[in-house]
Write a structure and sequence with these properties.
The protein has two domains: 41 residues; 293 residues, Spore Coat Polysaccharide Biosynthesis Protein SpsA, Chain A. 37% of the residues lie in helices and 15% in strands. The protein contains eight helices and ten strands. Helix 5 runs antiparallel to helix 6 and helix 6 packs across helix 7. The radius of gyration is 23 Å and the shape is globular. 40% of the residues are buried. The model has no long low-confidence stretch (mean pLDDT 93). Bound molecules: uridine-5'-diphosphate, beta-D-galactopyranose and manganese (II) ion. The site of uridine-5'-diphosphate has 14 residues, from helix 4.
Length: 343
């Protein structure tokens, strides 16, 4: 008996030793591979803005003419359809705040916190937003949740208010995410269009970490996905199923659905169309690869955004150091899919 016990302990120890010996070089190989990948990705040339001056842009507002498109030769500062891509160093925040205050701009921030996402993310999302999101302008939060009584009591600055609206909890997480399109278009029609000039829609699993200000306001605003802005188009994760209305062969950029916005009119048109296409897919028993994000990408391919935000506006720290990113304004929060998503 005793002999067998000693033998078993020895065996387990040896297995642990072998695993440890294997783990160290394996982790080194993985870290090295990811460093090499990041290095080569950044060696690949990004397309460059062909305009010399902000005056040549299709302007969302008068201040856009002052954008310094040449101040960031390392990155792409405008699109082929003459919309600016906003990076740190290109704009004067003071001029944007002044212009929007004079125009009387106001912003609706829409966020969904359904099921366990409320407990885990909402408080830090809202608190950080109070420190960084559109501080110069009146802001109304529209928080959609299935448990209104659980929404934390956040101390809001003057000119900022918060509305909590109850929504049903779809059983599939894919539907919780996709059906936001319907709810957003409805709340714009019923409420927002009477009170706010601009609308921004955010995923709740993120935290503001730097200025996310009025330089981001425009007619239709889309965000470059942090994981794809430096990759060749053939690696973009568009929906490739011809049976889906979100199907795309090619596109301009890969946009991230965690942040989009614009004038209430444009966001209403965008969300209505995406919702119709999602429902059309359901009728045909198909679901786009990245759900609402695939439909958003299709819409923005057919209706070009008037303003594009660099990945500073939604950065994932797990990507590691990138010299393109001089400021992080909004950061991905950790994902806990296993415990948060029900189905
Ligand atoms: N969401 C939610 N509850 C859920 C699933 C999703 O409130 O059970 C909302 C939440 O705002 C979340 C967004 O839908 O940020 C998109 O889902 P998720 O962030 O999980 O998608 P990912 O960014 O990981 O693709
Ligand atoms: C992931 C992200 C998803 C989706 C996907 C697209 O990095 O977590 O939300 O955007 O990229 O390929
Ligand atoms: Mn998310």
């Amino acid at each position: 008996m005793g002999y067998c016990k000693i033998q078993c302990v020895h065996k387990t120890r040896s297995i642990w030793k072998i695993m440890l010996i294997l783990c160290v070089p394996l982790s080194c190989v993985l870290i090295f591979r990811s460093l090499v990948f990041t290095f080569f990705v950044h060696l690949m040339p990004m397309s460059k803005c062909s305009l010399e001056s902000g005056k040549m842009l299709t302007l969302d507002n008068a201040v856009d003419a002052s954008l310094d498109l040449l101040s960031r030769p390392d990155v792409q500062t405008c699109t082929s359809w003459k919309a600016p891509i906003i990076w740190e160093g290109m704009f004067d925040p003071y001029l944007y705040d002044k212009e929007h205050k004079e125009e009387g701009s106001s912003v609706a921030l829409i966020v969904f916190a359904v099921g366990r996402y409320l407990d885990v993310y909402l408080e830090s999302f809202l608190n950080s937003s109070e420190h960084h999101f559109m501080l110069a302008l009146p802001v109304t939060y529209y928080v959609f949740t299935d448990i209104p009584e659980k929404v934390p009591d956040i101390k809001l600055a003057p000119q900022r208010s918060l509305k909590v609206i109850k929504v049903e909890r779809h059983s599939r997480w894919q539907d919780i995410s996709m059906m936001r399109m319907k709810t957003i278009s409805e709340v714009i029609e019923e409420d927002i269009r009477h009170h706010c000039t601009y609308v921004f829609c955010f995923d709740v699993d993120q935290v503001f970490s730097g200025r996310f200000g009025s330089e981001a306001l425009g007619d239709t605003v889309a965000l470059l996905h942090a994981h794809f802005y430096h990759l060749p188009k053939n690696l973009f994760t568009y929906d490739r199923n011809p049976k889906s209305t979100a199907y795309m062969e090619t596109g301009d950029f890969y946009y991230h659905a965690a942040v989009f916005g614009g004038s209430w009119k444009s966001v209403k048109a965008l969300t209505e169309t995406c919702y119709q296409n999602i429902m059309e897919d359901k009728k045909n028993n198909v679901e786009a690869l990245w759900h609402d994000e695939s439909h958003l990408n299709k819409y923005l391919w057919l209706h070009k955004p008037s303003r594009v935000l660099s990945p500073e506006y939604c950065w994932d720290n797990s990507i590691g150091y990138s010299r393109d990113i001089q400021v992080t304004r909004l950061l991905w929060a950790p994902k806990y899919y296993d415990t948060l998503r029900t189905f």
